[in-house]
Design goal:
Elements: H1 16-29, H2 42-49, H3 53-65, E1 69-72, E2 76-79, H4 86-96, H5 102-123, H6 126-145, H7 150-163, H8 167-179, H9 183-193, H10 198-214, H11 218-243
């Protein structure tokens, strides 16, 4: 049974698409529509939001793709079993502004970057080591000064891919680096890196990976990069659960 305060409100035109997604997510997160429950009929929902049914359908498709809703032809839209989880909501909010979920991005990084590190250990040239060392030195300087280390962090990961001497891996890593400039990733990563000793921990990980690459220890390089990716994922999840809010949603 729908609770009295679960009625939707008309959305502002300048933020029409995002507002539809946000309102539905907010109602789900507030418990008005628990897993398995149905949203109001499309006509009713469009009327409450004061949007066209076409605009509503686009928002519902985003929520379905993100795993928030289960849309059943001829029956309606139902909240999925994990529809209100932090990871699912983050994916939907990122998609609503044309970006990618940081948690999806870290999955892709965990698949590619350990392989880059492994091949960097096997195939690097002296110039590759120089680039890796320079990025670590800059990260160490910025960390000690309390400055933003985002760019030196990304430079290290790109240098690892370049050191693999595999053009396909490098192209994939460049794509990942481009995605890591998205606002949703940047804000969540900055918040997770701001926790005590996090910047120092990540710098230590990079130094270990560099040492393994320098020693041409492919197995260790791969393992260390996988460990680093796991630590980053854990920190991102902890930040989501601790703050109870999402990048871009505080403004």
């Amino acid at each position: 049974m729908v609770q009295p305060d679960s009625a939707f409100q008309a959305v502002e035109r300048p933020k029409l698409y995002t507002s539809v997604v946000e309102q539905i997510l907010a109602k789900i997160r507030a418990g008005h529509f628990p897993p398995g429950s149905a949203l109001p009929a499309e006509r009713t929902l469009a009327g409450q939001l004061q949007v066209s049914r076409g605009s509503l359908r686009e928002a519902l498709r985003v929520l379905e793709h993100a795993g928030v809703l289960d849309i059943r032809t001829g029956s309606g839209a139902y909240v999925a079993s994990e529809g209100g989880s932090s990871a699912t909501v983050l994916r939907a909010r990122a998609a609503a502004i044309g970006e990618h979920s940081p948690l999806d991005l870290i999955v892709a990084r965990a698949a590619i970057e350990p392989v880059c590190a492994e091949h960097a250990a096997l195939s690097h040239h002296p110039t590759d080591l120089a680039a890796l060392e320079a990025s670590v030195e800059e990260q160490a300087r910025a960390t000690a000064a309390g400055e933003d280390v985002s760019e030196s962090d990304l430079a290290f990961h790109l240098a690892v891919a370049a050191a693999s001497r595999n053009s396909v891996l490098l192209a994939q890593q460049r794509t990942l680096v481009e995605l890591m400039h998205e606002q949703t990733w940047s804000e969540l990563k900055h918040r997770s890196r701001s926790r005590e000793h996090a910047a120092e921990e990540y710098l230590s990980h990079h130094r270990l990976v560099l040492d393994a690459i320098r020693a041409r220890d492919a197995r260790r390089a791969r393992q260390l990069m996988a460990m680093h990716m796991s630590a980053v994922e854990t920190a991102l999840l902890a930040e989501l659960e601790h703050r109870g809010s999402f990048p871009g949603n505080e403004r």
